[in-house]
Amino acid sequence: MKHFLIALILGAVSSGASAELLSTDWQTASDDLITQDTVTGLLWLDVSETYGTPFDTVSAEFGTGGQFEGFRYATDAEVENLWSNFGIDLSAGAPTSVNNWDAGVETAAGLLGNTWNTYAWWDYPFGVSGITATVNGTGHHAMGAYQTDWGSTTYETVGTITLSDSLSNIQPYGSYLVSGATVPIPAAVWLFGSALGLLGWMRRKTS
Asked: What is the pLDDT of residues 154-206, one digit of tens each?
């Protein structure tokens, strides 16, 4: 029985937790402008709400009574984790393009805001790009992924660039605004700690 319990606990730890992203409302019923990550507990504002707006203008609205009260800029790590829920890796750094169609980009654009379609709907049917809190030199990081549809060829482009804060026209970028504490320890880690505690209790019972 003891060996069965140990195997069950370790199996649960190794399986980890899969993120579930849910669309919910922000200011009015059915506006669907918030994406909730039920694993991290973070609430993400639709990137299109800050489309084409410079970093300083957005961050000035974080205070009491501001348009984005209660929000903050997300870190690179938080954005990478969010995109990994769509099956897309943004951690490579430099933009890369591959000749394929990725349903994950379309899903992300449906939840987070389709900024590339707003920018140029005839060539960029799906895409999300936003500014993060991370500074690199004279500007902040911009991260995301988009699909480019030119004739019979479709490209997926992902990665991270530095966007100058001095730009007033930053199409097709919005901002990754998030509400909630920094990403907590994954549930699997807590489960692993509980497993160690249970194993210790079992060892004392059998000694």
From this structure: 566 776 777 776 665 577 889 999 998 755 444 443 344 444 343 343 344 44
* 21 within some domain: no
Strands 34-37 and 96-98, bridge-based pairing: unpaired
Number of domains in the chain: 1
Tell me, yes or no, if the pTM score tops 0.85: no
Give the domain extent around 66: 27-206
Among the listed ranges 35-39, 75-79, 169-173, which one has the minimum average pLDDT value? 169-173
Kindly tell me the burial class for residue 8, based on how many C-beta atoms sit within 10 Å of its own C-beta (0-12, 13-18, 19 or more): exposed
User: How far is the C-alpha of 107 from the C-alpha of 61, rounded, in Å?
Assistant: 28
Cβ–Cβ < 8 Å for 148, 124: yes
Q: Residue 74 is encoded by which pair of tokens?
A: 């997300």
Residue 18 falls within a domain, yes or no?
no
Has residue 201 been placed in a domain?
Answer: yes
Distance CA 147, CA 163 (A): 20
Angle at 180 between CA 83 and CA 134, to 5 degrees: 55
